[in-house]
Amino acid sequence: MSTRRNFLKTLGLGLGVATFPGILRAAANAHVVVVGGGFGGATAAKYLKHWAPQLEVTLIEPNPQYHSCVLSNLVVVNELGLDRITFDYADLRSRFGVRVRHDRVAGIDTTAQTLSLAGGGSVAYDRLILAPGVEFDAVPGLDINRVPHAWKAGDQTLLLQQQLQAMPAGGDFVLSIPPAPYRCPPGPYERACAVADFLQRHKPGSRVTVLDANPNITAARRTFETAFNGLYAGIIDYRTNVQVQGVDSAARVLTTNVGEFQADTLNVIPPHRAPQLLRDAGLANSGGDKWAGVDPLSYASTAVPNVHIIGDAQGTGQPKAGHIANSEAKICADAVIRLLNGGQPLASPKTNSACYTPITADTASFLTGVFRYDPASGAMQPVPESMGEAAHPSREYYDEMFDWAGNLFQDTFAQR
Ligand SMILES: Cc1cc2nc3c(=O)[nH]c(=O)nc-3n(C[C@H](O)[C@H](O)[C@H](O)COP(=O)(O)OP(=O)(O)OC[C@H]3O[C@@H](n4cnc5c(N)ncnc54)[C@H](O)[C@@H]3O)c2cc1C
């Protein structure tokens, strides 16, 4: 219980209202460019201006609105409107003075320290913070307009919602989980529970087949094993070590190493990697060249100078999640200001992560943990006593889930 209260406080009140007078003097006139306005990038842009108002900070993000993946499984099962997880950048502009440019970064010249934009022109930076999230590996035959992943929120979330609504009673929902690491470790199991609950109530006799590429449930194992074997016994069929080989998107048939699965609704979550933008710039040098290697003291690239990578695209081994992307962003912003000021990043950073997980339409569980810098390994390591999941899903945690997410949204998008 105390761990849970602590992370709620840390996110909502800790760095959110604090200012550091030593830092406020920093970095006059330097231009910091942040790429990607999700949980990592929006938070970094905000805190750079909050702690060093004289900095010039440009946030480059193609979309005028951001749809949060956090809570998006509730949109899939029609418990929440998409508008409740949609945010814009107006407050970052008006309250913090972040210059927001709606464009897509097409290339990075790390020698000239410039970015080229898909809309034309280029932007020069003194320091660059990249937070572009993830891209997916190609899956043979997968057409996401017929077989949604709904692992980036927005149209994909609504498409899966519509397909679920249109399912017949007694139908088959088939969900495939990619090999770790992928964004939101408990997220696919949460989706299985939310969908099973929906089908139980609205499409009786339906089944959820979960095909996991991993050898075991990758997060909150006790919570999900209990749900799969108890509440959803006879509805959820969970199988491990299943590798997806291809998809017939029109026929909704999934081919795997253990056979074919025919679905009424097919939900394939493809394997993840850092976006091509980072690979083209030579930044994806970690985890089999899938992720961007960084120094966790500052999130500075280990490949080139003056570039930092935060959020899902970085390769520190911390979970790929929105809460911890927000936490990494604050450490990165603080370090960038110190470095611009001729100083050094703080020597012992900590980050924290939390995921609340709806298990039924009115109960939720949670998973949380703290990571701290270990000078011996030069890596972020889990703090054992901080790692934990709720003892049982409850109504109280379901209500708390909205407080936690509200704090995260408010802190990230600078809402009043
Ligand atoms: C179903 C689901 C549930 C989840 N639940 C939780 C949860 O309970 N708790 C939790 O902590 N996390 C959760 N997550 C994970 C969380 O959503 C991600 O880890 C988080 O969004 C990562 O933040 P990010 O800033 O790295 O990337 P994103 O939030 O994906 O933001 C990336 C941004 O970069 C922009 N971008 C991409 N390429 C470019 C480019 N070339 N130029 C400019 N901009 C670009 C994109 O438009 C996007 O806005 C969940 C995820 C899913 C799928």
Explain what the structure shows.
- This protein is of the alpha/beta class and 416 residues long.
- The protein folds into two domains: 2-134 and 274-413, FAD/NAD(P)-binding domain (3-Layer(bba) Sandwich), CATH 3.50.50; 137-268, 3-Layer(bba) Sandwich (FAD/NAD(P)-binding domain).
- The chain is 30% helix and 25% strand.
- It has eleven helices and 25 strands.
- The strands form eight sheets. The chain has a five-stranded parallel β-sheet with strand order 5-2-1-9-21, covered by helices on one side. The protein has a four-stranded parallel β-sheet with strand order 13-12-11-17, with helices on one face.
- β23 (364-374) and β24 (379-382) form a beta hairpin.
- The chain binds flavin-adenine dinucleotide.
- Flavin-adenine dinucleotide binds at residues 35-41, 60-63, 66, 69-70, 72-73, 104-105, 131-133, 151, 183-184, 187, 275, 277, 311-312, 320-323, 325, 355-356.
